[in-house]
Each structure stands twice: as C-alpha cells, then as structure tokens.
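Dear H.,

Thanks for agreeing to be a second pair of eyes. The structure we're designing against is below in token form, covering all 341 positions.
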C-alpha cells in the first residue's frame, strides 16, 4: 500500500509539473514567437535526461540481480516494504503505465515538443497577421522583402486557422470565374499560393507581397505592374489587409477595363464596430464614388461576405491609386483576429 501511495503521489506531482510547463510554453509562445529553437533544445535536453535515467535504473537492477545470484552469497531477507515492492506483479496489482508526455490515454496525438511547436507557429501567425493589418502596403512589402520566409509562414498559419471553415472563399472565387468568359484576363490581388491561377481557365496575373510559388509577382497592391484598363476582373480574396486598403481598390479600378468586374471576399467581422455598428454601407458608398455598382451582395456565410461589383462610370479614372483615392473617405476596417488553437 505504501508503494501504491508513493506512486500515486508521484503521478500527481508529475502531472502538475507537466501542466505548469505547458502553460509556461503557451505564455512564451504568445509573447515571443522566436523562442522555438530554445524550446526545441530544452525539449531535447529533457528527453536525453529521461533516457539517461532509464539506463541508470536498468543497470542498477541488473547489478542487484547478479549479486543475488552469486554463489555462496546468502541474501538477507528484505524488509517487508522492500519485499512488497519487488514481488512479481499481477495485472491487478501492476501500476498503470504513464503515457508519453503530450499524449492522450490512447497513446496517440502529438508529443509535447510537437505541441510546443504548434503553439509557437500559432503565436507567430497571429503576430504576422496583426502586423500586416496594421501596416500600410509599402511597409508590409518592405518587411516581407527583408524576411521572405515570413510570407510562407503566414500562409501556413492561415491554412491551419481556416481549415475548419465550412466553405473557403477562394473556392467561391473559382466558382464565380468558371461561370465567366474563358477569354477574360484576371488580376488576383493578394493571391497567396495562387490557387486561382492554377485552377481556372482564364489568364490570371497573380500578385502578393512575396512570390512563394512560381508565377506570382511580388509587389505592393497599391502599385501593381499592369497598364491601365488591362484586365476584365480584379479579385481581392481576404486580402484588403493594409491600413491603406483604399489605395488597393483604387489601383484595381485603374487596371480594370471600363466595364470590368471587382470581386471581393472579406471577413464579416471586419465591418462591425463597437455597439454593433456596421461600416459596410460606408464601404460600399466609397466604392460607388470610385465608379463601382454592386451587382450582388452575399452575407449568408457565417465567416465572410462576398461582393460582386462592376465599373459603371468611365470618367472615374484613377491614376495609380493617387489623387482620386485620397479624396475618398474609406471607413476603418477592423483587423481580422484569429483564435488561439
């Protein structure tokens, strides 16, 4: 009974230490996403110590067994508690096997190190996401040019955050284009991994802050390398991220043909301010000033809305997102915040 009590106390203590360690990792991930190499080293050290301890215990048991079997050696009867400890164990008396740290009762799931890595990746994604939403296009481009790997990390985190969405907005854009003329030329502004270009039959120019896949052109969405009136459709699929997003839309108006189409998908919560006030009417009013008329508005999805607009006024000429854009009043859109996972 004493051995069983000692084991239970040890298990409780180890569980508390494990939970405390996991909480420390979560806090560190939220505050400093760059700690991953240090945490990996810490995890490796802990694993190495565990293995060394296991080897030492095995060696001690082997030594005791050899001494007990040595000829001419009379083994003294062990104390009652020690004898109880070393008696052969039955299935009923054997203590439960401790699962690997970070695994469930069935032994499945990621290791503690894998969980640490996932938390760090999530923290880094949220930091990148907030930075991109609170910077203008030029500053975001400069940051990504200095650290190109950040863009792939962002895309990886974005896929992880949105994989549970019942419907992906990029698939909506693809479905819309499949119902449009095959001869169209399309500008995908903020294209991510360029899934649209890889899927539809139309000619697609893909733009983003970094070229993470072949065919993507890295640029500021307020200054894309296309001539005036060059495309039939411009697409913003969750990519109105900068504080100067109005310049992105003005640039889309510049490169669109006189009766070209603008397709927008955005997270619904971005248009909702405190007190339940929606800035969507003000957003649509600014687009109307830019020369666009709403042809379809879909707010049925719980995560994002879809807008289909067409240019109506050929006089709304926007030179590179310049004077005309600055005269418009664009409402402030909330930064999109993703939950911790």
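And this is the sequence the design step returned. I haven't edited it by hand at all.
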């Amino acid at each position: 009974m004493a051995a069983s009590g000692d084991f239970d106390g040890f298990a409780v203590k180890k569980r508390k230490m494990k939970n405390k360690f996991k909480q420390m990792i979560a806090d560190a991930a939220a505050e400093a996403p760059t700690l991953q190499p240090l945490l990996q080293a810490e995890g490796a050290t802990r694993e190495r110590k565990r293995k060394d301890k296991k080897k030492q215990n095995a060696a001690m048991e082997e030594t005791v067994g050899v001494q007990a079997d040595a000829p001419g050696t009379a083994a003294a009867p062990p104390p009652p508690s020690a004898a109880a400890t070393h008696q052969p164990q039955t299935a009923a008396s054997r203590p439960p096997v401790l699962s690997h740290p970070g695994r469930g009762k069935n032994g499945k799931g990621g290791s503690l190190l894998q969980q640490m890595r996932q938390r760090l990746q999530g923290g880094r994604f949220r930091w990148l996401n907030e930075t991109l939403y609170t910077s203008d296009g030029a500053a975001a481009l400069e940051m990504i040019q200095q650290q190109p790997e950040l863009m792939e990390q962002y895309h990886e985190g974005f896929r992880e955050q949105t994989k549970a969405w019942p419907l992906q907005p990029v698939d909506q854009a693809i479905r819309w284009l499949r119902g449009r003329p095959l001869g169209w030329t399309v500008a995908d502004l903020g294209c991510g991994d360029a899934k649209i270009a890889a899927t539809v039959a139309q000619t697609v120019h893909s733009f983003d802050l970094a070229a993470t896949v072949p065919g993507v052109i890295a640029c500021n969405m307020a200054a894309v390398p296309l001539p005036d009136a060059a495309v039939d459709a411009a697409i913003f699929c969750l990519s109105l991220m900068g504080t100067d997003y109005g310049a992105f839309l003005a640039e889309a108006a510049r490169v669109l043909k006189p009766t070209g189409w603008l397709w927008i998908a955005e997270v619904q919560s971005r248009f909702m301010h405190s007190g339940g006030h929606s800035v969507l009417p003000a957003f649509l009013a600014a687009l109307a000033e830019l020369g666009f008329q709403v042809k379809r508005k879909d707010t049925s999805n719980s995560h994002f809305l879809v807008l289909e607009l067409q240019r109506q006024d050929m006089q709304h000429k926007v030179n590179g997102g310049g004077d005309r854009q600055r005269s418009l009043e664009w409402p402030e859109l909330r930064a999109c915040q993703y939950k911790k996972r």
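Two observations from my side: Residues 70-76, 81-109, 316-322 have pLDDT under 50 and may be disordered. The radius of gyration is 30 Å.

Warmly,
E.
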